[in-house]
Amino acid sequence: MQKMLIEGGRTLSGTVKIGGAKNSAVALLPAAILADSEVTIEGLPQISDMNALSELLQEIGGEVRWDGSTVHIDPSKMISMPLPNGHVKQLRASYYFMGAMLGRFKQAVIGLPGGCYLGPRPIDQHIKGFEALGAKVTNEQGAIYLRAEELRGTTIYLDIVSVGATINIMLAAVLAKGKTVIENAAKEPEIIDVATLLTNMGAKIKGAGTDVIRIEGVESLHGTKHTIIPDRIEAGTYAIAAAAVGGEVLIDNVIPQHLESLLAKLREMGVRIEEKDDQLLVIGGGKLKGVDIKTLVYPGFPTDLQQPFTSLLTKAEGVGIVTDTVYTARLKHIDELRRMNAPIKVESGSAIVSGPAKLEGARVRASDLRAGAALVIAGLMASGVTEVTGLEHIDRGYEDLTGKLTSLGASIWRDEMTVDEEEQTKNS
Ligand SMILES: CC(=O)N[C@H]1[C@@H](OP(=O)(O)OP(=O)(O)OC[C@H]2O[C@@H](n3ccc(=O)[nH]c3=O)[C@H](O)[C@@H]2O)O[C@H](CO)[C@@H](O)[C@@H]1O
Ligand SMILES: C=C(OP(=O)(O)O)C(=O)O
After folding, report:
1. Do 253 and 208 share a structural domain?
2. Residues where 2-(S-cysteinyl)pyruvic acid O-phosphothioketal occurs (predicted)?
3. Which member of 16, 174, 264, 427 has the greatest number of CB atoms within 10 A?
């Protein structure tokens, strides 16, 4: 097991290239199950979620070939194998095998998904959608069984705006008979990206990116080539890091419009940002003012940037209040930030940050992916050395985080943990 060490107090400067969007990638790979010939996807992030999904695709007979950040998936020999355990537990997005396998084979057996624990993460809206399309869904000993004679298009109103349910229902509906309408759909850019791949495969989808998506079922889908959108959350993380420690960071391969809610808040704090076509220049270093944030579905402030933003607020003057309305319990990073002397208290479910504070290096544990990013940013700001464990979470979603930060001038590296440290981590 490894830990990450950060010697804080350095500014960041230079250019960082953003990878493909994790939350798009984790749906694009399973979407290939629906094709009858090879699907090629370019620009994918090199993260552990990609390895887990590749393994799952291979388990059901897919031929998966990686060439750098490009994957070639030949789904023609796939069969409907049960996937009750193993890699399914490693990531949240294994739930996309439900929609894709149901769409292609009209049946699937998939274990309950893993991923970051952010409080309860039910999948009732996914199941509501599959049932409305005609599937019988049962939960037997921790695995979801889905079976359908045939899938028939219908109108599905989502009670909660859900990224996963919107994409999963799209995956199941593209090969269903007739027309499916998803109302109260999520509007995240990743949904448009998945709809674009499916459309290039021959699907008929209208309205992705709005809250009503209309799908006309087709008989079959074919192979295609697709380039993924950049990761707005990775880009946002580097923007926050640059604001936190100062310097000039050029974030390359980003769609600035995908980050408007974050950029507005950074500007409100006093950070200078220049937007270019596919780049953002973030100039940190000045005095920052505390602001409040409330996470919302897209285009609101993304819950996935809430934790890193909380670290940034410790540097600002005055009080900043952080409320996560998407995942109300996404607060596990707070206790760890407090170990680093962060002046944060939790009241009525909101984190109240009173800055500015001088953070101090400490031994901390990442409980989930973005908690990890929050702790790394805190480590960059802190005096002394910060040791971060729980790297398996960070590796699920950040491509070469230490390499990219090192190239920007940070002092950050990975080291093997001693046996004692591993024991302490397991028991903590
Ligand atoms: C792989 C992926 O894309 N992960 C992202 C996706 O997760 P994920 O797709 O799992 O998140 P959802 O958009 O579904 O969740 C939004 C809210 O709806 C609730 N809910 C969701 C589905 C359901 O059937 N029932 C239900 O109650 C959830 O508990 C949560 O409170 O969107 C989240 C919200 O932007 C992000 O934090 C995750 O990074
Ligand atoms: C919560 C996240 O991912 P997942 O849904 O894959 O657990 C995230 O990307 O912040």
Report:
1. no
2. 116
3. 174
End position of a domain, from candidates 207, 227, 247: 227
Residues 37 and 70 in one domain: yes
**221 and 286: one domain?**
no
Same domain, 287 and 207: no
- 114 Cα to the center of ligand 2, angstroms: 10
Rounded to an integer, what distance in angstroms lies between the CA atom of residue 124 and that of residue 144? 12
231-276 residue pLDDT tens: 999 999 999 999 999 999 999 999 999 999 999 999 999 999 999 9
Greatest Cα-to-Cα distance within the chain, rounded to the nearest angstrom: 63
Q: Are residues 163 and 303 in the same domain?
A: no
ipTM of this model?
Answer: 0.99
3-state SS assignment for residue 120:
coil
- The verdict on 133 and 219 lying in the same domain is yes
Q: From CA 84, how far away is CA 218, in angstroms rounded? A: 29
Strands 411-416 and 2-7: antiparallel
Task: Provide the domain limits for residue 63.
Answer: 22-227
Give me the amino acid identity at 129: G
CA 369–ligand 2 middle distance (angstroms): 7
CB of 346 shorter than 6 A to ligand 1: no
Residue 92 Cβ inside 6 Å of ligand 2? The answer reads yes
